[in-house]
Every structure is written in structure tokens, then in C-alpha cells.
Design brief:
- The complex is a heterodimer.
- Chain A has one domain (20-263): MetI-like (MetI-like fold), CATH 1.10.3720.
- Chain A is built from 14 helices and no strands.
- Chain A has helices at 2-30, 35-42, 45-78, 84-91, 93-96, 99-110, 117-122, 131-141, 144-157, 160-167, 172-201, 204-210, 220-229, 233-263.
- Chain B is of the alpha+beta class.
- Chain B has helices at 41-49, 91-101, 106-119, 135-147, 165-182, 193-199, 217-222, 227-232, 292-298; strands at residues 3-12, 15-25, 30-34, 56-61, 64-65, 76-79, 153-157, 185-190, 202-207, 210-215, 237-239, 242-244, 249-252, 260-270, 273-280, 285-291, 305-310.
- Chain B has a 6-stranded mixed β-sheet, with helices on both faces. Chain B has a 5-stranded antiparallel β-sheet with strand order 13-17-14-15-16.
- Classes of the chains: A mainly alpha, B alpha+beta.
- Chains A and B meet through helix 10 and helix 11 of A and strand 6, helix 2 and helix 4 of B.
């Protein structure tokens, strides 16, 4: 009993010091000067723009990585081809490479003097210092989650059910929609939630390619940093609270999903 | 012929799973593919179903070339060893799957599913999920699902392999009954010779990627074509140069032409039959089965010297000749 109580104390203190206290401080500071002040900071045009731009990142990166992730997981689990081990390793690259490096790489490719940048500029398409580049960066850093969640589930269910569906007359498309996808739905759901959380919070890669133009290429994390740099503490704290609230919502929905999965 | 396989070979990397295999299955028959694991029997079944593409050779189903027809359009029903139940669907939706893919009218699907659930004794389970069924029930559901699309042939891959002994026995009888009622051409894979003997009308014995022999159960038991088949489909005793069934050995109280001397080591009374364990002059052990009456007549007891002789034509004469000496190594009965 005593040992477990000691362990509990250590765990709770650790969480309090590293998690609860800092987040709590942000909340406290935000509402220090009253709700009205916080509301004013949150509804400032630049903050509102950052909020919508962040949602745009999520709205593009999550579907893109979900579709790619499921397809990639299917290829990795169900097919044999040369270079499979390489593909498997490549998928984890965004976990390993620092986001700043990702941002720099995108600048090198799509920047004004980059490989594709010159041609794209001729077509009137701007990637770097524009939302398009930020979307690319977000997709890159949040790419592995769906693949990594779906692969083990696919392995576990095996190909029996898909083969059964095909002997019953289903095309591979029908087998996918009616048999495979429902079987892997929890894995996909977790992957989507983790991708969302990552896309919401991404700072490094996005900040490199964004150019940090207030009201134009600032997502919420970039906006927080910029406000902080400019001594606009009220703006920084309140935007942080919005970001934290969105993250909290994402984590909560994950817990709800878990509960539903258990009761099934 | 309902199924015709001609010269099919299939290789997985370095492993040769099927080596120039040919096979004919009559319309409406019940056939067993019997063999030890790794003999190629499941691969052959999967080639027939279109789940595996042969490297060479052809498959015809009901007269039409099906070699390159995908599983989806072969019209075969396939039952998997581990059921392959659609876990997220109810029993009703599982059975209805094939018909709903074919976009049959709802009323028709409903009626046919009810019929099939009745046939497999699962009427009360329509709204359950597979996880709420026992193994035997899941396999019956899988059978109903396969039969729902009125397949030209029904293929079962070790259908009772994952079930415990009692359920397995029950389902065997039930499969026979079902076949008598539905009369769809049926091929099932098994490594259990007793199961094959009990259920099938025709047995295809496979060994080492090839078909060893095709025969009716009785024919297979009485006239095995090779030492492998002889050993695989029942117990054997070695007497001199011949392989003999234990009940095809005659025990004589005196030497005679063609007999071999042996000493009785143990006599076990198993009700109707008596099992006699003997040791031949060269030290080899031989087990013989005799009737109770014969054992009493010979007054068999341990330590007694008797003479053995293969009875009638039951022996696989020359079974240990050079040509077949190597075959027995992979043999032996797994059960």
C-alpha cells in the first residue's frame, strides 16, 4: 500500500509540475484581466484569421493523410514488392526529422529559386510564404499517424474476410468499403485524431515556410509565438487557450471513442 | 465434369506447392483432398477458387475455362478454416452478403436467408454477431453464407480443423446430410484420414505437391497405390518385405509356407477385437489385430512363439522395393 501511494504521489507531482501547472498558468493569465479582455484578444482580426487558417490546415491535411494512410497501410500489409522495407522506413521519416528541416527542405524545393518554385511562379502559383506551402508542411509532419495505427489492425484481421468477400462476388472496391474499412474503423479513427492533434499544433515546419505574415500566413501556433515576440502577452495567452481548448476537444473525442470501442 | 484441373503448377518463392497436378471432380460429388500439411491440398483448393493464380496449367469449372477468371466471378462458395466471418455484421447480414452484392430484391434476400439459417440450424441467431457464436455455429454460418449465392461448386478448406473433437464429429455428419439435401459439387480439404473416409465419396490423396492416388474410400484402404497412401490412410505393420494392415495378418500356431516366426509380447483385449503385439525374429515389432474367437482358439499369451503370414491380397507386395523406399519417409499418419 505504502509503496503504491508513494508511486502515485511521484506520478501526480510529475504531471502537476510539467503539465497541469503550465497549462493552468496560461489559463490564469488569459483571464487575469477579465473575460472581456480575453474575448477582445481572441476576436482580434489577426487572431480570428489564424484560427480559420489553422482549421484549414486540419481540413486539408487530415483527409489527405487519412486517404493516403489507409492506402499505404493496405499496400504495406497486403502486397509484396521490392522496396517495401524502404517504404516502411520512409513513412516514419516525419517522426524522426526535425520539423525545421522539413520547412527548409520545402523552401529549397518550392522557394523562388527552388527546383519547382521557378516553374510554379511562372504559373502564378506561390507555395512558400503562402497557405499552400504551410499545408504541405502540415501534411508532411502529420503523415505517419494513420498508417501506423492502421497497419497493426490490418495485420491482425488478416485477408480471410476480404477473400471471403471476393468469393461471394464482391469486387475489391466493394470488399474494401463493406468489409475492410468497417473492420479497421477504430484504427482509422485513432489515426485521424492523432493527425488532427499534430496538424493543430504544428509550429516548426509551418513557421519556416509561412513567412509569419500577420493576418495572412499565421496559424494559431505561429500567431502565439509572434504575439509573444511582440510583447502582446494578452494576445499570446488567449490564442494559446483557444489552441489548448481545441487540443483538449480532440483528446476528449479520442477517449469517447475508446469507451465506445470497449462497450462494443 | 464439374471441376477439371489440368497440369497445374504453383510455386511460392523456393517452395513448390503444386507440381503438375491434374484432377477431375464429378458433378454433384463429395470429394476430399487428403494429405499431410505442406502437401499442396489447400493451395489446390485456392487455385480452384481463384484465390491463387497457378503458374501454369488450367482450371475449368462446369465446362468453362476459369483459369484467369477472378474469384469474384467464378461462382464458387468457399469456407475458410477460421470461418472468415464478417465480424461487424450480424449473422443475417453475413449470410445476405453475396446476394446484397448481387443487388437482389430485399424480400428475396430475406426469404432465402431465413431458409438458409433454418438449414444450418441458426434461425434463432439471426441478430447475433459472430463474436457471440460458438466455433461450430460460426462455421455453419460461413457455410450458409457460401451457399446463399447458389455456387456451382462448394469448396471447404479444413472446415472443421479449428473445432474441438466432439463438434467436429457432429459437423461431419451434418455436412454429409447437407450434401445429400443440397447436392452441390463439394470439395473439402483435410489432413484427417478418418474425416475423409467418413465424409467423402471420392478421396484425392496428395503428397509433396502431387496427387498420389484418387479413389473411393474403400478402394483406397484396400488397394493403396503406394506405400505413402498405405501408411497415410490407416495403420500398417511391416512383415518381411511387405506392408500389411494389422487385421490382414494371419497368426498360425505352426510354421507353413511363407510364414515368419515371432514371439507374442502382449495381448490386449479391446472388446470385439484383440490386439496382439509381437516381436519378429529380426527384432522388429509387429502389431496384429485378430477377432476374439481367433485369439481364444490360438490360446494367445505373452511369450508364446507363433508364425505370421500376410492374409489374402491385403499386403502391398514389394512395398519396400527400391522404387518406393523413399516415399515412406514423409508419410505416417498425423493423428
Amino acid at each position: 500500500m505504502r509503496a503504491s501511494r508513494g508511486l502515485r504521489t511521484v506520478a501526480l507531482t510529475y504531471l502537476a509540475l510539467l503539465l497541469v501547472l503550465p497549462v493552468g498558468m496560461v489559463f490564469y493569465r488569459t483571464f487575469e484581466d477579465g473575460v472581456a479582455a480575453a474575448w477582445a484578444a481572441v476576436t482580434a482580426p489577426d487572431a480570428v484569421h489564424a484560427f480559420w487558417l489553422t482549421l484549414l490546415m486540419v481540413a486539408v491535411a487530415v483527409p489527405a493523410n487519412t486517404v493516403f494512410g489507409i492506402g499505404c497501410a493496405l499496400v504495406l500489409v497486403r502486397h509484396r514488392f521490392p522496396g517495401k522495407a524502404l517504404l516502411n522506413a520512409l513513412i516514419d521519416l516525419p517522426f524522426a526529422v526535425s520539423p525545421v528541416v522539413v520547412g527548409l527542405a520545402l523552401v529549397l524545393l518550392y522557394g523562388r529559386t527552388g527546383w519547382f518554385g521557378t516553374w510554379l511562379a511562372d504559373q502564378g502559383i506561390q507555395v512558400i510564404f503562402a497557405p499552400l506551402g504551410m499545408i504541405l508542411a502540415t501534411i508532411f509532419v502529420s503523415l505517419p499517424f494513420v498508417v501506423r495505427e492502421v497497419v497493426p489492425v490490418l495485420r491482425e484481421i488478416g485477408s480471410d474476410q476480404e477473400e471471403a468477400a471476393s468469393t461471394l462476388g464482391a469486387s475489391s472496391w466493394q470488399a474494401f468499403w463493406r468489409v475492410t474499412l468497417p473492420s479497421i474503423r477504430w484504427g482509422v479513427a485513432y489515426g485521424v485524431i492523432l493527425t488532427t492533434a499534430r496538424a493543430l499544433g504544428e509550429f516548426g515546419a509551418v513557421s519556416v515556410v509561412s513567412g509569419k505574415l500577420a493576418g495572412q500566413t499565421e496559424t494559431l501556433p505561429v500567431h502565439v509565438e509572434q504575439a509573444f515576440q511582440n510583447f502582446d502577452l494578452a494576445g499570446a495567452y488567449s490564442a494559446s487557450v483557444v489552441l489548448a481548448a481545441m487540443a483538449l476537444l480532440t483528446v476528449l473525442s479520442m477517449n469517447l471513442l475508446k469507451r465506445e470501442e470497449v462497450t462494443r | 465434369m464439374s471441376i477439371e484441373v489440368v497440369g497445374v503448377s504453383k510455386r511460392f518463392g523456393d517452395f513448390l506447392a503444386l507440381d503438375d497436378v491434374s484432377l477431375s471432380v464429378r458433378d454433384g460429388s463429395l470429394t476430399a483432398l487428403l494429405g499431410p500439411s505442406g502437401s499442396g491440398k489447400s493451395t489446390l483448393l485456392r487455385v480452384i477458387a481463384g484465390l491463387e493464380l497457378p503458374d501454369s496449367g488450367s482450371v475449368r469449372i462446369q465446362g468453362a475455362d476459369a483459369t484467369h477468371v477472378p474469384a469474384q466471378r467464378r461462382g464458387v462458395g468457399f469456407v475458410f478454416q477460421h470461418y472468415a466471418a464478417f465480424k461487424h455484421m450480424t449473422v443475417r447480414d453475413n449470410v445476405a452478403f453475396g446476394m446484397s452484392i448481387r443487388k437482389r430484391p430485399r424480400a428475396e434476400i430475406r426469404e432465402r436467408v431465413d431458409q438458409l439459417l433454418d438449414l444450418v440450424h441458426l434461425s434463432g441467431f439471426a441478430h447475433r454477431y459472430p463474436a457471440q457464436l460458438s466455433g461450430g455455429q460460426r462455421q455453419r454460418m460461413a457455410l450458409a453464407r457460401a451457399l446463399a449465392v447458389e455456387p456451382a461448386v462448394l469448396l471447404l478448406d479444413e472446415p472443421f480443423g479449428a473445432l474441438d473433437a466432439n463438434v467436429r464429429k457432429e459437423l461431419r455428419e451434418w455436412l454429409r446430410d447437407l450434401h445429400e439435401r443440397v447436392h452441390v459439387t463439394t470439395v473439402f480439404v483435410t489432413h484427417d484420414q478418418e474425416e475423409a473416409m467418413e465424409v467423402a465419396e471420392q478421396i484425392v490423396v496428395m503428397n509433396d505437391a502431387r496427387v498420389e492416388q484418387v479413389a473411393a474410400p474403400r478402394e483406397l484402404y484396400e488397394n493403396p497405390g503406394s506405400e505413402f497412401v498405405m501408411r497415410f490412410v490407416g495403420p500398417v505393420a511391416e512383415l518381411g518385405d511387405a506392408l500389411v494392415r494389422p487385421h490382414d495378418i494371419e497368426i498360425l500356431p505352426v510354421p507353413d509356407w511363407g510364414t515368419e516366426e515371432a514371439m507374442v509380447r502382449r495381448v490386449s483385449h479391446l472388446g470385439f477385437e484383440v490386439r496382439v503385439e509381437l516381436e519378429a525374429a529380426d527384432g522388429r515389432r509387429v502389431a496384429v489385430q485378430v477377432t476374439r474367437a481367433r485369439a481364444v482358439e490360438l490360446e494367445l499369451e505373452a511369450g508364446q512363439i507363433v508364425w505370421l503370414r500376410p492374409d489374402r491380397g491385403g499386403a502391398l507386395a514389394g512395398g519396400r522395393s527400391a522404387a518406393q523406399a523413399g516415399v515412406g519417409v514423409a508419410g505416417g499418419n498425423p493423428d
